[in-house]
Amino acid sequence: MVASIGYGLTTLLEPDSSAAEWIGYQIIIGIGVGAGFQQPLMAVQTVLVILDIPTGTAVIVFLQTLGGALFVSVAQNIFANKLVHYVAKYVPELGDAYFVLAVGATNVKEVVPSEFLPDVKQAFNDALTQTSVLFAALAATSILGAAFVEWKSVRGKKVEMVAA
Q1: Averaged over 38-52, what is the pLDDT?
Q2: Does the residue 152 lie in any domain?
Q3: pTM higher than the cut 0.85
Q4: Domains of the chain: total
Q5: 132 Cβ contact list (under 8 Å, min separation 6)
Q6: What residue numbers bound the domain in which 69 lies?
């Protein structure tokens, strides 16, 4: 839930937002994601019997890795589509909105006329904030996984040693 709050806050960013704002939001996201990656592993070790822990751990790590790999491309598609949309909306004088996408953020100042740069900057901002909505939603839906895990205390659990 902490990560979803952080991602939600990033949707409020504007081109003139202070560094303290976006750094603070990233810290909130980092705390949430960091805790969110560890909690399923602790749950697996608490709930499962000792012989099933390696399998449960492997499934958790696989799903976390798969989700990260899959949603990087989903986010890239959202960002690219929204950037093209917003450039066409804010700066129709540029003509081909795909041109800005092809040039990239690092070179946009060199190829876009200076009178259009504030609008192009706003288009980049709006595309990024729209992409943050995806991550806020994904982080919020992670509560569903926690809702179906058996509640057990990690205190006082007897540690068993099993040789392979």
Answers
A1: 87
A2: no
A3: no
A4: 1
A5: 7, 8, 10, 11
A6: 2-147
